[in-house]
Amino acid sequence: MIAADRPMTLWIATFVEAQAAERGAARNTQLAYARDLADLADWCGRRGVHFADLGQAGIEDYLVSCEAAGLARATRARRLAAIRQLFRFAFEEGWRSDDPAIRIAGPGRDATLPKTLSVPQVQALIDAAAASRDGVRNLCLMELLYATGMRVSELVGLPVAAARGDPRMLLVRGKGDKERLVPLSPTARTAMRDWLTLRDRIQAEATGNRGTPPSRHLFPSRAKSGHLTRNAFFLLVKSFAATAGIPPDTVTPHTLRHAFATHLLAGGADLRAIQTMLGHADLSTTEIYTHVLDARLRELVLTHHPLARAQDDPA
């Protein structure tokens, strides 16, 4: 089939499948590629242009239209990354004799530091989780999240087998199906033991009544995935923040991941050890937490140092 005869939707589907099969792209990454490239396909379709004929100028025009539509720089950078991957793939597959995206400069990303929380704030969230409905499960979720810095998808999708045997290290399967071991704190181990006991009892009662096999997930639910969803946990964390007296719009599950890294670094942990525990492929991604710590230290000095206060008060 000639490349131009392939529908653009088929180009996208084939590319996404290849990313999953050859590079181990996670499901969320596949969906992001598909969404971003579908937007480009819609834009091309309205102009009567096919991916097989789209040139560098056309891609640049599309990116200009994204900026005019008010899309953030990070969103435009992500879309360009998807476009680059698609046309590199098309070139390698022989669908095109050139790569029109190879020389396009990206818009860059906004230089923002990740939001984090203080240790007392994290403790307040954990206390709120313990006092909530389903407190045993919720306490386990929050203790594990803060003790390991897992991504939300890694946490909610944990297999129950990972919790068996009172492990001191938790085996986490991350992006690209890469596995890593993360140490568990004593409080996280206790919370996990308590939840596992209760979970097994609930599962035994439920499966006995329905005659269904027990769930393989540590945090089972009736969702299609079979486990607690990311959205459900997101809402839980917001409710814990409200209970703890912390503005809910400043707290997400990912904020706890940032807190984990920032607090470890402040306590003297090695940056490469934090990189391993977070599952970052590149150390430069982890280095952002040194900037977070620097910003907090500068704020501490400006707020509490006597000479800084003296400069603010000329009297």
List the SSEs and their pairings.
Elements: H1 8-23, H2 27-46, H3 56-68, H4 73-92, H5 119-131, H6 135-148, H7 152-156, E1 169-173, E2 179-183, H8 186-210, H9 230-244, H10 253-266, H11 271-278, H12 283-286, H13 288-304, H14 306-312
Q: How would you portray this structure in words?
A:
It is a single chain. Helix 2 (27-46) crosses helix 4 and helix 5 crosses helix 9. The chain has 14 helices and two strands. The mean pLDDT is 85. Helices cover 61% and strands 3% of the residues. The relative contact order is 0.09. The protein has a two-stranded antiparallel sheet with strand order 1-2. The chain has helices spanning 8-23, 27-46, 56-68, 73-92, 119-131, 135-148, 152-156, 186-210, 230-244, 253-266, 271-278, 283-286, 288-304, 306-312, and strands at residues 169-173, 179-183. It folds into two domains: 3-92, Tyrosine recombinase, N-terminal domain (DNA polymerase, domain 1, Orthogonal Bundle); 119-302, Intergrase catalytic core (hpI Integrase, Chain A, Orthogonal Bundle), CATH 1.10.443.10. The radius of gyration is 24 Å and the shape is globular. With 315 residues, the protein is mainly alpha-helical.
